[in-house]
Specification:
Helix content: under 10%
Number of strands: 19
Distance between the termini: 36 Å
Shape: elongated
Length: about 240
């Protein structure tokens, strides 16, 4: 499913179909899901396509740069401890035209997950977040990589009090996604500052064994970044 494809190909899954065919000197890209059909003509001599998971904040359109994972069961941490947990996040597919590595073009983004949004904070200063719910796991859970990925999250409570975590919010800038045919993976950390605040960031790691690093959309868009972490200031 994920990976590089040259010229004509067809991928058939229960939930979606993707194909590139050739008509005369034009390549035709088609993608069909239960709710949407996309068709684009691509005028290139050779059609080299990359399909990989991207930051899950682009559908149905770019509304927010922040992803909230709400925990189905809140996590209570004792003082001065670090706990490794696993949570799930929604997958978005990015389809890139990669003929020229200096000028990679995104031609399609789609998801099979339902899109929901919520407000974190107050009405005046709060931020809109894409919203997703997940159980908390102590080992890597099984999940289908066409629907969900796995976040390995180190939660550190450096305070002298018990702290309850009911949500985690990620900034999409700097999100490093790794994939293979079986899973999509992110590694991140959460440093609890007090009972109502925490710093969340992505860990800069090399690709885990047998996994490939996804091409990042924010790099393609040449976004200027000064900070990749997010400070949760309105509650955990």
């Amino acid at each position: 499913m994920f990976g590089h494809y040259n010229n004509t190909f067809e991928l058939k899954y229960e939930s979606f179909n993707i194909s590139v065919s050739k008509q005369d000197s034009i390549f035709i890209y088609r993608r069909k899901t239960a709710l949407e059909f996309i068709e684009k003509a691509i005028a290139v001599e050779n059609c080299q396509i990359l399909i990989n998971p991207v930051e899950p904040l682009n559908t149905p359109k770019k509304i927010s740069n922040h992803l909230m994972i709400a925990l189905n069961v809140p996590l209570l941490l004792e003082p001065k401890t670090t706990k490794k947990i696993y949570i799930k996040f929604p997958i978005e597919f990015g389809v890139f035209l990669t003929n020229d590595l200096k000028n990679i073009e995104i031609i399609d983004i789609f998801t099979l997950s339902k899109n929901k949004f919520t407000l974190y904070g107050d009405l005046k200063d709060g931020i809109i977040c894409k919203y997703y719910k997940s159980d908390v796991f102590l080992t890597q859970p099984d999940c289908s990589p066409i629907y969900e990925g796995i976040i390995e999250l180190d939660v550190s409570n450096k305070t002298a009090k018990y702290v309850t975590v009911s949500m985690v919010i990620f900034n999409s800038f700097g999100m490093r996604i790794y994939y293979n045919n079986d899973r999509v993976f992110i590694k991140a950390s959460m440093l609890i500052l007090n009972e109502g605040a925490a710093e969340v960031d992505f860990d800069n790691i090399s690709a885990p064994q047998d996994m490939i690093k996804s091409y990042e959309l924010y790099l393609l868009k040449m976004m200027s970044m000064t900070k990749t972490s997010f400070t949760m200031e309105w509650g955990l």
